[in-house]
Amino acid sequence: MDQDMYWHMHVDDPGIVVDRGIALHKLIRLFTISLGGNAYLTFMGNEFGHPEWIDFPREGNNWSYHFARRQWSLPADPGLKYKFLAAFDKAMIDLIKNQRVLDSEFATQLNMDEANKTIVFSRGQLVFIFNFHPFNSIPGYIFTVPEQGEYKIVLNSDNKEFGGHGRVDETISYPAVFNSQLKIWQLSLYVTNRTAIVLKR
Known about the structure:
The chain has helices at about 5, 15-35, 75, 80-100, and strands at about 110-115, 120-125, 125-130, 140-145, 150-155, 175, 175-180, 185-190, 195-200. By secondary structure, the protein is an alpha+beta fold.
């Protein structure tokens, strides 16, 4: 997002560069925490897209305190989009902690779709769907799930609360259907572009 983070982060500014940047920021963070292993560490301020580096006084910066701060006022300002990234980070961390994802075995790949830039995997009790495609939203996208049952969305990066567009209905359940030819359970879901969706059976 570069300089647009300084000039186009107001909630009433519909800039496409910031919109795409926020979407990718959420995907990359969730991708990292859900696949990375048994621990997670974020850079200071990165939880809300801090626009400047954080640099403590040292010889290399002439012992300056200028960048030795987190700008907590940015996510606290209701008029700025930084609040969306902070809200997503909180929801993401809460989900990962409550579902004990970092205590689980490593992820199991369920689908790898290069054409649609979509990756699906399970870890613990959750199924993660990532659509990294810049413009391809896929209605009725079919993918494998680990077992029979109905699945609910427990996290959706496209939720308006997180600065998304609210394109997926989070109130309904998605039943797994048995594919008798392949002998697997499958689920169908509207997978929107630059979106991460997490399901729980």
